[in-house]
Amino acid sequence: MSGSKGEVLDARYYHASGQERRITPEMWSDILMMIEEGHTIRSISAMADVAGWSAIRRFIRESEEARTQYARAREIAAEAYEAQILDIAEKTSPLDAPASKIKIDALKWIMSKRAPKVYGDKITQEVTGADGGPLQVAAVRRVIVDRSPGE
Questions:
Q1: Which domain range does residue 57 map to?
Q2: pTM score > 0.85 for this model?
Q3: 5 CB-near residues (< 8 Å, 6+ apart)
Q4: Kind of pairing, strands 20-23 and 11-14?
Q5: Quick one: CA dihedral 34, 42, 7, 21, positive or negative?
Q6: Has residue 143 been placed in a domain?
Q7: Where are the beta strands (DSSP E) in the chain?
Q8: Angle at 105 between CA 101 and CA 110, to 5 degrees
Q9: What's the total number of domains in the chain?
Q10: pLDDT tens-digit map of 41-98
Q11: What is the CATH number of the domain that holds 87?
């Protein structure tokens, strides 16, 4: 693989046919686009003329640029899942509502992990005084405990 910015080349893999191939910039661009659409590496690698799962994973591990692009594509995929959720919700009937809820919950969980700043649960805790006001400090005491030997 090349280390130059903007260029991701020379990632060799063996196609199912047994032929040695390369993950070209064009193939990598197509893989990223499919990830952005919500596909997983495993589902992409099952397609014809695409590198296998282990080759794609190795490619991502070996290139800082590929890791950055992959992470960004996964974040964008959360938006694709949002569209899927809306589509499922619009097409759900009372008969298939339980199955749709499972699908929606799974997509929401994936979204919260891929883009936690946007879709994650934000939990905050505030400590307030009486009636929601600021905490009031009544007294500050310093206590020194002197333990005698043998106690």
A1: 11-119
A2: no
A3: 65
A4: antiparallel
A5: negative
A6: no
A7: 11-14, 20-23
A8: 150
A9: 1
A10: 989 988 877 888 888 888 899 889 999 999 999 999 988 999 999 999 999 999 999 9
A11: 1.10.10.60
pLDDT digits (tens, 9 = 90+) for 23-32: 888 889 999 9
* Residue in this structure with the two tokens 């298939």, named with its chain if needed: 96
Distance CA 99, CA 66 (A): 36
Token pair 């590496």 is found at: 41
Is 1 inside any structural domain? Answer: no
Burial (CB count within 10 angstroms: exposed 0-12, middle 13-18, buried 19+), residue 114: buried
Structure tokens at 104: 């929606």
Residue type, 120: G
Report which residue type is found at 144: I
- Structure letter (DSSP) for residue 122: P
**Dihedral, 58, 59, 63, 69 alpha carbons, nearest 10:** -120
